[in-house]
Amino acid sequence: MTTFVLVPGAWKGSWAYEAVVPLLERAGHTVHALTLTGLRPDDDPATVATANLDTHADDVLRHLDRHHVTGATLVGHSYAGMVVAAAADRADGRISRLVHLDAYVPHDGDSCWSATNDHFRGVFAVGAAATGHAVRPPAGGDPRRRPHPLASFLQRIRLTGAHDRIPRREFVYCAGWEDRTPFADLRTRLRADPGWRVHDLPTGHDAMHEDPEAVAAILLDG
């Protein structure tokens, strides 16, 4: 039995994985879907203003501690690629598999801002204009989305290299939004890296809702 820890991307909570969780549980696995600090319905503006990438990595690590999780498969979607990389680097060997689901795969010193493309830098800048600390969700999409802490997009990640020693590291590339994706060059880089396994899906970025069965199939291929 595997323990899956699922971390949502920007503006989203644990509900982002609502269609995938039952598929993994039905296969007999334990699943924890997280909501990061600043994205919870009862978080006040001060909490959103002060949350950054370290805060979110600590959310994951505290969850591992609280539930005594070891040997986990840690999954991060989109922005949460930054979070799972930081958490895995600090997890003292408790992560056995790392899955970046159409997500950033940072080097030491990267930030979400530096790793993304001009389209999303524009989304972040426009979205933060009202408050200066919270990035409102782009128009359209799920109404449950919440303003996302700007500091988490801007903070540079610090990696020791411990995450590079995780036995399985995988990247899932969603090809159905190639006009906006910031991950095309990343896919090319990771395909050439023997330390990574790359999967392709034909979906848009929100693969967990567009094709939860395909996402679950990748996660269960372990």
Structure characterization notes:
With 222 residues, this protein is an alpha/beta fold. Helices cover 34% and strands 17% of the residues. The chain has a single domain, classed as 3-Layer(aba) Sandwich (Rossmann fold), CATH 3.40.50. The protein has ten helices and eight strands. Helix 3 (53-66) packs across helix 4.
How would you describe the shape?
A: globular
- How much of the sequence lies in strands comes to 15-25%
Helix content: 25-40%
Sequence of strands across the biggest β-sheet? 2-1-3-4-7-8
How confident overall, as mean pLDDT? 97
What's this model, at a glance?
Helix content is 34%, strand content 17%. The protein is an alpha/beta fold.
Helices and strands in order, then pairings?
Layout: E1 3-7, H1 21-26, E2 30-33, H2 45-50, H3 53-66, E3 72-77, H4 80-89, E4 95-101, H5 112-115, H6 118-127, E5 134-135, E6 148-149, H7 150-154, E7 168-174, H8 184-191, E8 197-201, H9 207-210, H10 212-220
Parallel strand pairs: 1-2, 1-3, 3-4, 4-7, 7-8
Antiparallel strand pairs: 5-6
Helix pairs in contact: 3-4
